[in-house]
């Protein structure tokens, strides 16, 4: 088994092991803080995260307004409170080790407002934003505004190429990495184009190598690719480690 060496992620050298964001709110400040405590990258979900009352009890989600627009505003307010609360928990559990990321589904209603609200009030607690479930064109500008690294989730080199040309080439300083989520192996939010056959899986290696070649062409040789989807044991991915064709790589573990 090849050994893993620390790499630079979100401004700090950590082990290239990343907790999946679990957009269903399956990861929180406790899990992400524990990952970070071991000098890895913890990721908490920004989708309806819990927040707490004065006694530390979870506030049960309950909407009080009657109209749909008013309830939407309640949802946004609660999501911001929850994101801040989970960032605080993660920071405390981590003991200052590793990195803390927040995962957000881009197509969630008012996701940008939620991200801005959390980042504004949780300065210094969140090191990176992971974002998928759509094409997050404005993610680079938003993250750069707060000095936080950003990590778009893509399922092909083609998708990243579109993001780069349309937006990210103007916000390179805080592009922390690119999450490659394999569309055949990952469990959620997968992207296949009409040119691809869902019944004929392609090997992740060739698709990751294609993404690396594209990134190298844009001068992103030191920007890591985070491999996501179907990562259960590093023994299955040894040929990706210390491979010049793949370059700097980290491995994201989510749910089975």
Structural overview:
The protein has 256 residues and is of the alpha/beta class. The chain has 6 helices and 10 strands; from the N terminus they run βββαβαβαβαβαβαββ. The chain has helices at 29-37, 68-94, 111-121, 139-145, 157-166, 204-217; strands spanning 7-9, 12-14, 17-19, 41-45, 99-105, 128-132, 149-154, 178-181, 225-228, 249-253. The chain has an 8-stranded parallel β-sheet. A two-stranded antiparallel ribbon has the order 1-2. Helix 1 runs parallel beside helix 2 (68-94), helix 2 crosses helix 3 (111-121) and helix 5 packs parallel to helix 6 (204-217). The chain is globular. The model has no long low-confidence stretch (mean pLDDT 89).
Derived structural class: alpha/beta
Roughly what fraction of the amino acids lie in strands? 15-25%
- Gross morphology is globular
Q: What Rg is obtained from the alpha carbons, in whole angstroms?
A: 18 Å
Question: Which parts are unreliable, with pLDDT below 50 for 5 consecutive residues or more?
Answer: none
Question: Mean of the pLDDT scores?
Answer: 89
Provide the descriptors you would attach to this structure in a database record:
256 residues, eight-stranded parallel β-sheet, two-stranded antiparallel ribbon, 18% strand
List the helices and strands and how they pair.
Elements (H helix, E strand, L loop, with lengths): L6 E3 L2 E3 L2 E3 L9 H9 L3 E5 L22 H27 L4 E7 L5 H11 L6 E5 L6 H7 L3 E6 L2 H10 L11 E4 L22 H14 L7 E4 L20 E5 L3
Parallel strand pairs: 3-10, 4-5, 5-6, 6-7, 7-8, 8-9, 9-10
Antiparallel strand pairs: 1-2
Helix pairs in contact: 1-2, 2-3, 5-6
